[in-house]
Every structure is written in structure tokens, then in C-alpha cells.
Design goal:
4 strands; 474 residues; mainly alpha; 19 helices; two-stranded antiparallel sheet; disordered N terminus
């Protein structure tokens, strides 16, 4: 959540060979200790477990929020929940066991919005085909990671645009939360407006206020606590006052917002293997593959750079620790996301919460992975959660993603204008892809006609061409 967190007192830098704070003569006490380097990195088994629990609490909202978003595409909520849990388990296990970093991997916020609201609803792509696009983006990601090509890709897209895209996606997620809560509605005169207060919207506002306070006070698991409390407050809606019919599709609309269907159920594996690989290779869909690739790639890079700063987890060259292995893990996670039935997974900035608790090794990620598994059997309980309960989490995730707006060089107009277009167009167009496409084109045009054509990297020309292809397909 907060990438500016500093490591707690007494924790060591990760590069043991260059760590002046490590206790002299400290020796591993077990095979587990030796494998993860717990003692060598100045940590303890207890600290790593607590850190894993902390990270899980900070990010477990994704178990509810991701299926809620994916179910808008026609995917079954239980199937989306199963896919969310599985990818979080496998991705976090790989991050802990192979990359040995204390980083949680789960379906990415922003990427799931791109999947559901742009690709499926915006373009009319079947969700099976969208899963195919996820797979192909994973293939390309894996190639880039295997070739260690991150520097070439990072250098191609200007830093200002990367920051702006993150901000634009954050605003987009916030808009989705406001729309899901029915606080912002359409209007034929003003385009959009605030809805009149009603029992559901009042319940949402109270839940948003509570969640905001918990986040501001840095309470572990604040988003999930907000979801649970808002769900409990929503139980009377449709029973004692108000009507929740508008919050459901017409086919399953009920007056009550919270509907009980039991606590436990067998996992729903119906979404596994449903991806349409050939359909995803249509020329009109290729831009989406590349947008997913670049978004996942940049999200991973920015997350690891932030976390490395937060926990002083750098190698002797000052780069994030085990970066190549971490990129390979993230590409693996994207690659298997489609076959499992979910939007792409990536590293989570909420991992900084566990790092602030002292987590320094892959054991933290492994603990996170194991904590996801019980939720395979809790889909009926989690489907109790109404849209007004997950909306506060969406809005506050948008707040977290706006942090990078301060890093945009607003005084450089040839950089600031394309960045502004990305920040504004992504939420206003209700399309991550379109907002990115227009910002990339604006960047190329401005550089070209202001005599700065040398600042356009070769890969950026390719991206701009893909943007033109995308926009002409609309």
C-alpha cells in the first residue's frame, strides 16, 4: 500500500555479503533457514510468518474484489474466485521458493478492469477470448523475462508516461467503485451526476468513511475489514428499509443486498482451460495483448523498485534483489492466469506492509500463499458481499495508485501533455487501452513537431503504430 515505508529498526539489508548490520557470526539453524537465508538477512522465522500474515491481510480484499469484477463479464463468481485463489497461491509460492522475495503475487488491480470493462464490455470480446489474450501476453512477458530485456522495454516508454498510466488506472478503478456503489449515475443532461441518497448509498458512504479511517491509521487488513463491516451494515437493506434491486443484473435481482446461500462449497473449476487461443490472435485484438504485456511489465518493475526502496532490498549494484528471477516468476504468473481463468497476476505493492513488519525472505511470500488456500471452499460465504461493500476498496486502491502523480515532470510540456492525456482519458473514456493509445500518440506527435524526435525510442514507434491500429479498429 505505502511504498515509502522504511524497514523497521534492527532489520538487515538483503545483500548479506555487503550487510554491515548483520550480527557477526550468525549461523543458520535449520534447512529452512539456510534455504531462505533468514538469519543471514537479519530476520527470524517468527518475523517472517508475522510479515506473511500482515501482507495477506493487506491484500486479501482481492479474493472478493477480483471475482466481483470478472463476474461482470459473464464468468461465474465461484469459478472466478477459484481462479483468483489458485493464481495467488501458485504465483506467491513461486515468488517465495524461486525468487526468494517477500512479495505477494495475485490478480492485478487495473488489469482486471482492463479485462472486464474495456476488452469484454467495451469491445464486445468474449471472456474466453480475453483469457486467450492474457495467455499470449504471458508468452511475450516470459520471452522478455528470459532474455532479461527489461531495460530495453523500460527505456522505450518514458518514465512520465509510466507514472501517468498508473495514475489514470487508479482513477479508473475509483470511478468503477463509485459506479458500482451507484453513487455516480448517468444523466442525459450533465452526462453523469451524484445519485440521491438512499439506504444503499448511505450504507456505502459509511463503509467508505470507516475504511478510509482504518487505512489512514494504517490498520493491517483495513480494506478487508471495511468490506466485512460494510457487508454487515448492508444486511438490513431490502429487509428493514430500502431496495437493492438496482445492484444486481435483472436476471437475479432481489430487493435484499445480502443473500445467504451457505458458507462452504466445493471449488468451481469450470473456468479452467476455457481460453480461446486462436480467437485472441485476431489482428483487432493484438493491441490488447501488448497493452496487457506492457501494463504487467511496468507494474512489476515499479512494484519491485518501490519495495526494494522500502526494505532496502538491493543487490551490490543498487538494483532490486533477485530482479531477474522475480520477473520470471511474474511472467510465469501471467502465463498461467489465462488457463486458470483469470486476468493477469502481478506483484503487489501491499507487500510493503509485510516488509514493514520485518519480512525479508521468500518465507513471507510462502506464508501468504498458504493463507489463500482455505478460500477455495468459501465461495458461498464470499458471494454474500454486495457491490457497495467492495466499492470502498476500489476507491482506496485508486488513492494508492495516485502516488506517482507527483513524479511526473509537469514543467516539461512535451512530457506533461501526453501524461495528462493518459491521466484524464483513461477514466473519462472508461477504457485503459484507449487512454494509453491516445497518450502514446500525443507523445510521438509532440516530440516529432517540437524537434525532439531523437527522444522517441525505436520501440515507442512500434507502440505508437499499435495505438493507431487499435484506434482505427474502434
Amino acid at each position: 500500500m505505502d511504498s515509502s515505508l522504511s524497514p523497521p529498526a534492527g532489520t538487515a539489508a538483503p545483500d548479506a555479503a555487503h550487510d554491515s548490520t548483520r550480527v557477526a557470526g550468525a549461523q543458520p539453524v535449520s534447512a529452512l533457514d539456510r534455504y531462505f537465508g533468514i538469519t543471514a538477512l537479519g530476520s527470524t522465522f517468527r518475523t517472517e510468518v508475522i510479515a506473511g500474515i500482515t501482507t495477506f491481510l493487506a491484500a486479501m480484499y482481492i479474493i472478493v474484489v477480483n471475482p466481483a469484477i470478472l463476474s461482470k463479464t459473464g464468468m461465474a463468481f465461484p469459478a472466478a474466485l477459484t481462479a483468483t485463489v489458485l493464481i495467488s497461491f501458485f504465483g506467491s509460492c513461486a515468488m517465495g521458493l524461486y525468487a526468494r522475495n517477500p512479495v505477494l503475487v495475485a490478480p492485478g488491480m487495473g488489469l482486471n478492469a482492463l479485462f472486464a470493462f474495456t476488452m469484454v464490455h467495451g469491445v464486445g470480446m468474449p471472456w474466453q477470448t480475453a483469457l486467450g489474450c492474457v495467455f499470449w501476453s504471458g508468452i511475450l512477458f516470459a520471452l522478455l523475462a528470459a532474455l532479461n530485456a527489461r531495460r530495453f522495454v523500460v527505456d522505450a516508454i518514458p518514465a512520465n508516461l509510466r507514472y501517468a498510466i498508473s495514475c489514470g488506472i487508479g482513477l479508473f478503478i475509483t470511478v468503477i467503485g463509485l459506479v458500482n456503489a451507484k453513487l455516480v449515475i448517468g444523466d442525459p443532461v450533465t452526462v453523469v451526476r451524484l445519485a440521491h441518497l438512499s439506504p444503499p448509498t448511505v450504507t456505502f458512504l459509511i463503509g467508505l468513511a470507516l475504511t478510509t479511517v482504518l487505512v489512514a491509521r494504517r490498520v493491517n487488513g483495513a480494506l478487508m475489514i471495511g468490506i466485512v463491516v460494510t457487508t454487515l451494515m448492508a444486511i438490513p437493506v431490502g429487509r428493514l428499509w430500502g431496495d437493492g434491486t438496482a445492484y444486481f443484473p435483472k436476471e437475479i435481482a432481489t430487493a435484499t443486498l445480502v443473500n445467504f446461500h451457505g458458507f462452504f462449497a466445493a471449488p468451481d473449476f469450470s473456468g479452467i482451460g476455457q481460453l480461446d487461443l486462436l480467437g485472441a490472435l485476431k489482428v483487432a485484438y493484438l493491441p490488447f495483448v501488448f497493452v496487457m504485456l506492457f501494463t504487467a511489465f511496468f507494474d512489476t518493475l515499479s512494484t519491485f523498485m518501490s519495495i526494494a526502496e522500502a526494505g532496502n532490498m538491493k543487490d551490490r549494484d543498487g538494483n532490486p534483489r533477485n530482479m531477474r528471477q522475480a520477473m520470471i516468476v511474474d511472467s510465469f504468473s501471467v502465463l498461467i492466469s489465462g488457463p486458470l481463468g483469470t486476468s493477469p497476476a502481478n506483484a503487489y505493492i501491499e507487500s510493503a506492509a509485510g516488509i514493514a513488519q520485518g519480512g525479508r525472505t521468500g518465507l513471507t511470500a510462502l506464508v501468504c500463499a498458504l493463507l489463500f488456500l482455505p478460500f477455495l471452499f468459501l465461495s458461498p460465504m464470499l458471494s454474500l458481499v454486495p457491490a457497495i461493500a467492495t466499492a470502498p476498496a476500489l476507491i482506496l486502491v485508486g488513492v494508492f495508485m495516485m502516488e506517482s502523480v507527483a513524479r511526473i515532470e509537469w514543467h516539461r510540456l512535451d512530457e506533461a501533455i501526453p501524461s495528462f492525456i493518459a491521466v484524464v482519458m483513461i477514466p473519462i473514456s472508461y477504457s485503459i487501452t484507449d487512454g494509453i493509445a491516445y497518450s502514446f500518440l500525443a507523445f510521438v506527435v509532440l516530440k516529432l513537431f517540437t524537434g525532439r524526435v531523437k527522444e522517441i525510442k525505436p520501440a515507442m514507434w512500434i507502440v505508437a503504430a499499435l495505438a493507431v491500429l487499435l484506434l482505427t479498429q474502434m
